[in-house]
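DM from R.C. (forwarded with permission)

"hey, sorry to bug you on a friday — could you get me a structure for this? deadline for the figure draft is monday and I only need the backbone to look sensible"
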Amino acid sequence: MAPALRVCRGILKELRASIGPTYNKSLAYNYVMDQFRKNKITGERYCRAQQEAHHDSNTYLCLLGSTRTHLALHKLYHAKGECSQESAAAMVGLRLPEQPGGKGWEK
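My reply, with the result:
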């Protein structure tokens, strides 16, 4: 697993991407920072609850990143109305096959 500081920075990066430059004034920012401060590892204390909190934070970071990626893909590929076959094929990186001329296929 990634170190706790890296996970915390990753979560804050995702919050900044979703909320904007004023992310540090949001309730989510305050909650995340309070939880990381509350579950800080010290030399004397290393327990199961700390491992669970670290696992939960990794899971939350994965959720935030996956949600952001999903929204970007949805915005890119979601139908914006009717489109031609050529533009639909180009959207996913394909080309339509060219038909030979003289067989009634030409436009």
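R.C.: lifesaver. The mean pLDDT is 81.
me: no worries. The first helix runs from residue 4 to 19.
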